[in-house]
Amino acid sequence: MSVRLEVWGDYALFSRPEFKTERVTYDVMTPSAARGLLEAIFWHPGLRWRIDRIHVLNPIRFDTVRRNEVDSVIRMSKIRTMAEGKGDGGVIYTSESIQQRSSTILRDVRYVIDAHFTMDPRKTSPDDSADKFQSMFMRRAGKGQYFHHPYFGTREFPAEFRLWESDDDPVGFEHGHRDLGYMFYDFDYRNPARPKPLFFRAALDDGVLDVASAEVRS
User: Fold this and answer.
1) pLDDT, tens digit, for every residue of 120-136?
2) Rounded to the nearest 5°, which phi and psi values hold at 141?
3) 163-217, pLDDT tens digit by residue?
4) Which Pfam families does UniProt cross-reference here (predicted)?
5) What CA–CA distance (Å, rounded) separates 165 from 44?
6) What domains can you pick out in the chain, each with its CATH number?
7) Torsion angles phi and psi, residue 83, rounded to 5
8) Spatial distance between the Cα atoms of 71 and 180, rounded to a whole number of angstroms
9) Distance of CA 47 to the CA centre of its chain
């Protein structure tokens, strides 16, 4: 069963894994980020979203921002100590822990996601059906409902959404072919203990990223 969803926002960051210290975004939304958007609206353990195409409606524009980040995660023992009133728990972050880093992000993004889903009979009940799941997604998306607010790559960049209800296909922002190089596709979770990253050679043709025909490799 297929769905078509329009998503947009002021900023986006789809991090390229080859950059370690500074965060640099891909030119367009990755398939895994698109899947995450759909799962934020409707998720079920027996349902798996598959991205077919991503239509890029707005021109690709970049911004560079600097922000303060920390180089470590707060320990639960400190939080527990403070919650139990047994002291201040010590210093959570020192000035040395805070680092200023630069990020290259996208601005003014708008996409239309074409996707379908498959069902795992091991995780669904006899009452579940593709029609039922599609109806639930369409109803939730139509009402603007979600389990957690969708976002573009990172939670600080929220995404707005609505069903694409036009009978016409979305029109990409440009004509012609644009090679995007290798892009992160998603993780292979067949071994949950060690998920394997997957990549594919991405390209825009008339502003459309064709994911369904992509040759995925690890």
Assistant:
1) 989 999 899 999 999 99
2) -65, -40
3) 999 999 999 999 999 999 999 999 998 888 899 999 999 999 999 999 999 999 9
4) Cas_Cas5d (PF09704)
5) 24
6) 2-64+103-217 (3.30.70.2660)
7) -65, -30
8) 31
9) 17
Of 184, 189, 193, nearest to 48 (Cα)? 189
Q: Return the pLDDT at 85.
A: 72
Task: Compute the distance between CA of residue 92 and CA of residue 115 in angstroms, rounded to an integer.
Answer: 43
Instruction: Answer whether 34's CB lies under 8 Å from 55's CB.
Output: no
Retrieve residue 84's tokens.
């139990």
**CA distances for 189 relative to 30, 63, 213, angstroms:** 17, 33, 21
The mean predicted confidence, pLDDT, of the chain is 90
Amino acid occupying residue 184: F
Q: If residue 142 lies in a helix (H) or strand (E), which one and from where to where?
A: helix 130-143
Query: Does residue 144 come out as left (phi exceeding 0), alpha (psi in the -120 to 50 range) or beta?
Result: left
Q: Residues 199, 216: contact at Cβ < 8 Å?
A: yes
